[in-house]
Design goal:
The complex is a heterodimer of chains A (about 220) and B (about 600). Chain A is mostly helical and about 220 residues long. Chain A is about 65% helix and about 0% strand. Chain B has one domain: Cytochrome c oxidase-like, subunit I domain (Cytochrome C Oxidase, Chain A), CATH 1.20.210. Classes of the chains: A mainly alpha (about 220), B mainly alpha (about 600).
Chain lengths: ~220, ~600
C-alpha cells in the first residue's frame, strides 16, 4: 500500500535524534533484534545525504570552471563583455522560484504532519506549479540571452570571455534541468503514489542551491568579464 | 505488506535484469571486475608490444598492421604509433583497471555487505555507474579504429598538443576528442559510484555498526569515494573545455600565435598550464584513489591471516584520511618542470614530503603488526605482503622526486616510470590479486586453487621487480622516457637492460595467464568452500551465505556487537569472534 499525502501518519520519520553514529547511521531503522522485516517496511532512502553529496560534486565542478577562468585571466587579459540585461531579470525569477518552492515545501510538510492548514489545504501543490513555471521561465530567459548574443555575432569562440560565459551559463542551465526534473517527480509522486518527506526536502535543497549557484555565477561573470 | 515490501528492490526474474542491467550491487561489482579484467588484458598486451619494440626496434610483430595500417606498416610500429599505444596503455590501466577493480568492483560487492545493508541506496544510479563506465571504455577503445588512431599525447594529455587538433599529429584530432569524451563519461560513472558509496557508508549501516566498527576495507572505500567525488568533478570540466577547444574553436588551452607544422593556429591567449593545473588536481588524488582501496584490502586480508588486529585500527584510518586530504595539496609536484614559479615548487614540495608521514605510519603499522605474527601463508596473504613490498620500494623513490632540484634531473626519465609503476601500478594490482584470492569464495561460491595462486604470486613478485627496478637505474643513467628508440651514444649501451626488461615483462605477463586460468577454472570447477567463512574472518561478509542472497542477509538483518577484528581475544570461546556474535568480550582491547 503506497503512502500518500492523504495518509500523513505513514510519512518517513525524520532523523532520529537518539541514534548517533554508534547505532548504525542516522536514519537506519534496523530494530534491536535485527528483525527488519516484521517491524519496519524498509530503511528510508538517504536522499538528504545524497543531495549534499551531489551539491558538493557540483560545487567542485564549478570551482574548477572558476579556477580555469582565474588562471586563464592571469595568462592573457580577458576582453570585457556586456552581459545581456535579461540575465538580471532571470536572476529575480530564480530567486523568486526559491521563495515559491519554500512556500510549497512548508505547506506540503504541514499537510504531511497531519496539521492541515485550513486556509491552504485545498491545494498544497499550487506553489509547486508556480515554481515549475518560474524554473522554465528562467531557462527560457537564459536561452533568450544566448539568442541575443548570437544575433549580435558573439558565439562560443568569439573570444575567451564569451567562451566562459557560454560554458558557465549552459552548464548551470543543464543542472537546472535536473532540478526541474526533480520538481516534476515530486509533483507526480504527490498526485499518484507516495512522496517521502526526504525526497521533498532534498529536491527543495537542490533547487535553492541552483539559485545560489546562479547568483554566484552572475557575480563572477559581472566582476571578471 | 511488511513481509514483502522490505527490500530496496525486488529480486530480478529475467536474465537481462539479473545479469545485464542489474540493480544488485553484487552483480554490478562483478561487472566492474570483468571490465577491469578485460581492460587489464588489453593494457598488458599493449605493454608487451611496446616492450618488444623497445628491445628490438626492427622486429616485426605479426599482425600488428591489422591494428593500424599506417601505424605499423610491415608490422613494425612508427614512432607516433608507439606513443599512441603508450597513451592507451596508461589511460586504460589508470582509469579502467586501477580505479575500477579495487574501488568500484570490490567496493560495490562488499561495502554494502560489510556495513550490513541490503544494497546501495541508489541502485539505479549504481547500475548507470557501471554502464556509463563501460560506454566510456568502448569510446576509448573505438579510437583504435577511427581516423588515424588513438591520441599520442600520453595519459596526461598535456596542452597545447592535446588541444590543437589534427595538425598536432596522428590521433590528435578525433583521437583526442574520443579520449576526452571517454574520460568525461568515465567521470560521470565514478561520480555516481561515489554518491552511492558515501551514502551507503553514512546512512545504511546496520544497528551497532558505528563508523569505528567498519572494517578497514570499508573505510578505505569510503575515503576513496570522497576523493573520487572531488577529483572526478574537476577532471570532467577540464575534459569539456578540452573538447570545446577541439570542436568549437575556443582557446582555453592554446596560446596565441602558436605555429605547429608551419601552420599558424587561430587560437588566442590560451593557457598551457591551465590544463596541467586542472588535470593534476585530479591526477594526484587519482594515485590515491588507486592505492587506498588496496591499503584497506591488504589490511583486511592481513588481519584475518595474522589472527590479530593491527597495532592501531584508528591510526590506520586517520592515516588513510590524511593521505586523502594531503593528496590535493601536492599535485604541483607533477609540474616542477612545467615552468612554475620556483616558490610554487617549494610550496608543493613541502606537503609532498609531509605526505610521506602518513604513508610511513601505515607501513610501520603493517610491519609492526606482522612482527611476531604467525601469518597464515596463502595466496591472498602473499599478495598482501607483496603489496607492502611494492609500496615501500616504489614509495622510497618518491622521496627523491619530491625535491624539485632532483626531480628536474629525473622527471623525464625512466626513474619516474619505475616509481609510479611500482607504487601505484604493481602495488595496486597486488591489492587486487589479494582481494580476489581472499573474497573469491564469497563472490563465486568456489575456492581458487591455492597452489596456482602461490605460483602466480612468486612469478609476479620476482617478475615485477625484474621489470621495474631496472627502470630506476635507467633513469639515473639519464634514459629519457616516452622515446620509442634509443639511438644516442649515451643510450645505446642501455639497450641490453631494455632487452632484459622486455623478457621480464613477457615472462611476468604470461604468469598472469596462470591467474586467468585459475580464475576461470575455479569459477566453474573450483572446490566448494567448506562453509560460509572459510578464512575464519570476523566481518559481516563472512556471516552471510555463500554466495550472499539477493538482499545480502536473508530474513534477518545483522546486528553488530563488536569491533571488526576480534581475534585471539583472551577469554573468548574461539580464536575469532564475529561482529555479529553477542558474546560478551570483556578483554577485547578496543572495547574496554
Amino acid at each position: 500500500m503506497a503512502t500518500t499525502v492523504h495518509e500523513p501518519p505513514k510519512i518517513e520519520p525524520e532523523r532520529l535524534p537518539n541514534q548517533g553514529s554508534g547505532n548504525g547511521g542516522w536514519r537506519n531503522l534496523v530494530p534491536g533484534d535485527g528483525d527488519l522485516r516484521r517491524i519496519q517496511p524498509y530503511s528510508p532512502p538517504p536522499a538528504s545525504t545524497g543531495i549534499w553529496v551531489i551539491m558538493a560534486s557540483i560545487t567542485m565542478s564549478f570551482a574548477a570552471f572558476t579556477s580555469a577562468l582565474v588562471v586563464r585571466q592571469g595568462t592573457a587579459p580577458l576582453q570585457p563583455i556586456t552581459l545581456p540585461p535579461v540575465l538580471y531579470l532571470n536572476t529575480l525569477v530564480i530567486i523568486g522560484s526559491s521563495f515559491t518552492l519554500e512556500i510549497a515545501r512548508r505547506r506540503i510538510a504541514t499537510f504531511m504532519e497531519g496539521l492541515r492548514d485550513k486556509d491552504h489545504s485545498a491545494s498544497p501543490t499550487r506553489w509547486l506549479y508556480v515554481t515549475l513555471f518560474l524554473g522554465l521561465l528562467f531557462v527560457a530567459g537564459q536561452t533568450l540571452a544566448w539568442i541575443q548574443l548570437r544575433s549580435q555575432g558573439f558565439g562560443l569562440a568569439s573570444n575567451v570571455s564569451y567562451s566562459f560565459f557560454y560554458v558557465l551559463t549552459v552548464a548551470h542551465a543543464l543542472h537546472v534541468f535536473g532540478g526541474l526534473g526533480g520538481l516534476v517527480r515530486v509533483t507526480r509522486k504527490l498526485h499518484n503514489t507516495a512522496l517521502r518527506r526526504s525526497t521533498l526536502d532534498a529536491t527543495a535543497r537542490y533547487w535553492h542551491f541552483m539559485g545560489a549557484l546562479w547568483v554566484y555565477l552572475l557575480l563572477l561573470l559581472w566582476t571578471k568579464l | 505488506m511488511h513481509d514483502t515490501a522490505h527490500a530496496v528492490h525486488g529480486a530480478p526474474t529475467s536474465f537481462i535484469r539479473k545479469h545485464v542491467f542489474s540493480l544488485d550491487h553484487k552483480v554490478i561489482g562483478k561487472q566492474y571486475y570483468a571490465l577491469a579484467l578485460l581492460a587489464a588484458l588489453v593494457g598488458m598486451v599493449l605493454s608487451w608490444i611496446m616492450r618488444i619494440h623497445l628491445g628490438w626496434g626492427s622486429f616485426a610483430i605479426p599482425g600488428l598492421h591489422l591494428l593500424s595500417k599506417n601505424g605499423a606498416p610491415g608490422d613494425v610500429m612508427t614512432p607516433e604509433y608507439y606513443l599512441q599505444l603508450m597513451t592507451m596503455h596508461g589511460t586504460i590501466m589508470v582509469f579502467f583497471v586501477l580505479t575500477t577493480a579495487p574501488f568500484a568492483a570490490f567496493g560495490n560487492f562488499f561495502l554494502p555487505i560489510q556495513v550490513g545493508a541490503e544494497d546501495m541506496p541508489f541502485p539505479h544510479f549504481n547500475m548507470m555507474s557501471f554502464w556509463v563506465t563501460f560506454v566510456g571504455f568502448l569510446v576509448l577503445v573505438a579510437s583504435f579504429f577511427v581516423g588515424d588512431g588513438p591520441t599520442l599525447g600520453g595519459w596526461t594529455q598535456y596542452a597545447p598538443l592535446s588541444a590543437i587538433g589534427a595538425v598536432g599529429g596522428p590521433g590528435e584530432g578525433l583521437g583526442v576528442v574520443l579520449w576526452a569524451t571517454s574520460i568525461a563519461i568515465f567521470c560521470v560513472g565514478q561520480l555516481l559510484g561515489s554518491l552511492n558509496f558515501i551514502t551507503t557508508t553514512l546512512d545504511m549501516r546496520t544497528r551497532g555498526m558505528s563508523l569505528m566498527r567498519l572494517p578497514l576495507s570499508a573505510w578505505a572505500w569510503f575515503i576513496t569515494s570522497v576523493m573520487g567525488l572531488t577529483a572526478f568533478a574537476v577532471l570532467m570540466p577540464a575534459c569539456i573545455l578540452l573538447i570545446l577547444d577541439h570542436v568549437a574553436g575556443t582557446s582555453f588551452f592554446v596560446p596565441s600565435n602558436s605555429v605547429i607544422n608551419d601552420q599558424v593556429l587561430p587560437h588566442t591567449g590560451g593557457s598551457t598550464l591551465l590544463w596541467q593545473h586542472l588535470f593534476w588536481f585530479f591526477g594526484h588524488p587519482e594515485v590515491y584513489i588507486a592505492i587506498v582501496p588496496g591499503m584497506g584490502i591488504v589490511s583486511h586480508v592481513l588481519i584475518t591471516n595474522m589472527r590479530k588486529p593491527m597495532l592501531s585500527h584508528r591510526v590506520l584510518i586517520y592515516s588513510m584520511g590524511a593521505l586523502a586530504v594531503l593528496s590535493y595539496m601536492v599535485y604541483g609536484h607533477h609540474m616542477f618542470v612545467s615552468g612554475m614559479n620556483p616558490v610554487s615548487s617549494l610550496a608543493f614540495s613541502f606537503p609532498t614530503l609531509i605526505i610521506t608521514i602518513p604513508s610511513t605510519i601505515v607501513v610501520l603499522i603493517w610491519l609492526g603488526s606482522l612482527y611476531g605474527a604467525r601469518l597464515r601463508i596463502n595466496a591472498a596473504s602473499l599478495f598482501a605482503l607483496g603489496f607492502i613490498s611494492m609500496f615501500i620500494s616504489g614509495g622510497v623513490s618518491g622521496f627523491f622526486l619530491a625535491q624539485p632540484s632532483i626531480d628536474i634531473m629525473l622527471h623525464a626519465t625512466y626513474f619516474v616510470v619505475g616509481h609510479f609503476h611500482l607504487v601505484m601500478g604493481v602495488a595496486a594490482m597486488f591489492g587486487i590479486f589479494a582481494g580476489t584470492y581472499f573474497w573469491f569464495p564469497k563472490m563465486a561460491g568456489r575456492m581458487m586453487n591455492e597452489t596456482l595462486g602461490k605460483v602466480h604470486f612468486w612469478l609476479s613478485f620476482v617478475g615485477a621487480y625484474c621489470i621495474f627496478m631496472p627502470f630506476h637505474y635507467l633513469g639515473i643513467a639519464g634514459n629519457v622516457r616516452r622515446y620509442q628508440a634509443f639511438t644516442d651514444d649515451y643510450l645505446i649501451h642501455l639497450i641490453p637492460v631494455h632487452k632484459f626488461i622486455t623478457i621480464a615483462a613477457l615472462f611476468t605477463g604470461f604468469a598472469q595467464l596462470i591467474f586467468l586460468y585459475n580464475l576461470i577454472h575455479s569459477r566453474f570447477w573450483g572446490a566448494i568452500p567448506p562453509n560460509d567463512n572459510p578464512w575464519e574472518g570476523t566481518s559481516l561478509e563472512w556471516s552471510t551465505a555463500t554466495p550472499p542472497p539477493h538482499n545480502n542477509f536473508g530474513d534477518k538483518m545483522p546486528v553488530v556487537y563488536h569491533d571488526p577484528y576480534q581475534y585471539s581475544v583472551e577469554g573468548a570461546s574461539t580464536d575469532y569472534v564475529m561482529q555479529t556474535s553477542p558474546e560478551d568480550l570483556k578483554n577485547a582491547p578496543d572495547e574496554k
